[in-house]
Design a protein that fits this description.
This protein has helices spanning 5-17, 232-237, and strands at 30-32, 34-41, 56-63, 66-72, 80-83, 99-103, 110-115, 130-137, 145-146, 155-156, 166-177, 183-192, 194-196, 202-204, 210-220, 241-243. The strands form five sheets. It has an eight-stranded antiparallel beta sheet. The chain is mainly beta.
Length: 259
C-alpha cells in the first residue's frame, strides 16, 4: 500500500460519514537508534521505470568529489542514525538540528545526507525547485531528519522551517558514458522546495521525470564500532527515534491520518 495524501483524505472523509469503527489512528512504531530509509511513492501511477517504490536510500560515488543519494533494492540500503545538534543556538531549536549519518565501507568512513544548495541560496527558487541530495564525509545538512513530534516516522527536508517541501526520486543523466558507449544515468534523490508554477500557483510542484516520495524509517540494528573510530562518537550520541518494523507490510488504508 502506498502512503498517499489522497488515501488520507478518503480515509478521513469515510470515517466522518460512517458509524464509528474500530480503527487505530496511526500505524504502530517502535524505538531504535538505527534505521533504513524506505522509498514510498505517494502516487502509484507516477512511479518511475524501473519502479522505486520499496527501494532504499544508498550513496553512489559519481566521481572523486560527488557522492549522490540514490536508491538500492529492498534490504540493500544504508543503515542510518540520527545525530543531534551538538551546539544548538537555543534549547527550543535543539530538536530540529539533527543530521542523518551512515557508514560506507567501514566505521572510519562516515557519510552524512546533504542538500546541495543553489548558488544564490534562494529559499523559493521559482526557476528550479530541485535541490540535489548527496552524501558528505563526516557530516550532513542540519535539519534534514526524522519529523519532530506527530505520529509518523519519515524524513522531512528541513525541520527548521517546519518541514516545508518534500522529496522526489528523479531519473538523471550523469553526462557520462560507460565502456560500452551507453549513457550513464541513475535514479537520484532530490529535495523539492515550494515554488510558483507557470499558472502562478505557489506550492509543491514535482518536475517531469520525477516522482513524489516519502522517506519512511524502517528499524534496523545499530552495530558496534571500535572505540576511536570515526563513527564511535556518532554512535555514542545517536538518538533513539521512532521507526516501523516493516514499512512495506503497512496497510495505510487501515489508518486515519493527515500529512
Amino acid at each position: 500500500m502506498h502512503f498517499t495524501t489522497a488515501t488520507a483524505l478518503l480515509s478521513i472523509a469515510a470515517f466522518a460519514a460512517a458509524a464509528p469503527v474500530d480503527i487505530d489512528s496511526y500505524p504502530p512504531t517502535v524505538n531504535s537508534k538505527a534505521f533504513r530509509l524506505v522509498v514510498n511513492v505517494t502516487d502509484p501511477s507516477r512511479d518511475l521505470s524501473p519502479p522505486v517504490h520499496g527501494t532504499e536510500i544508498f550513496p553512489y560515488f559519481i566521481n572523486s568529489s560527488l557522492i549522490r543519494a540514490g536508491v538500492a533494492q529492498a534490504g540493500a540500503g544504508s543503515v542510518f542514525l540520527q545525530f543531534p545538534d551538538p551546539n544548538p543556538s537555543s534549547p527550543k531549536f535543539a530538536p530540529f538540528g539533527g543530521q542523518l549519518l551512515t557508514e560506507q565501507g567501514g566505521p572510519d568512513n562516515v557519510l552524512g545526507l546533504n542538500q546541495i544548495s543553489h548558488p544564490d541560496d534562494t529559499p523559493f527558487p521559482d526557476n528550479d525547485p530541485r535541490y540535489a541530495m548527496s552524501f558528505t564525509p563526516g557530516k550532513g545538512t542540519m535539519g534534514i531528519q526524522l519529523a519532530v513530534g506527530g505520529h509518523y516516522a519519515f524524513v522531512r527536508p528541513s525541520e527548521f522551517s517546519g518541514g516545508l517541501g518534500n522529496f522526489a526520486i528523479c531519473r538523471i543523466d550523469l553526462g557520462q558514458r560507460d565502456h560500452h558507449g551507453h549513457e550513464r544515468w541513475m535514479q537520484a534523490l532530490d529535495s523539492i522546495s515550494l515554488s510558483t508554477d507557470e499558472n502562478g500557483e505557489f506550492g509543491l510542484h514535482i518536475p517531469e521525470g520525477c516522482t513524489h516520495v516519502r522517506l519512511v524509517a524502517q528499524c534496523d540494528v545499530l552495530k558496534e564500532v571500535p572505540e576511536g573510530s570515526a563513527a564511535w562518537p556518532f554512535h555514542q550520541a545517536a538518538q533513539e527515534v521512532r521507526c516501523y518494523e516493516d514499512v512495506m507490510a503497512i496497510d495505510w488504508s487501515q489508518y486515519e491520518f493527515s500529512l
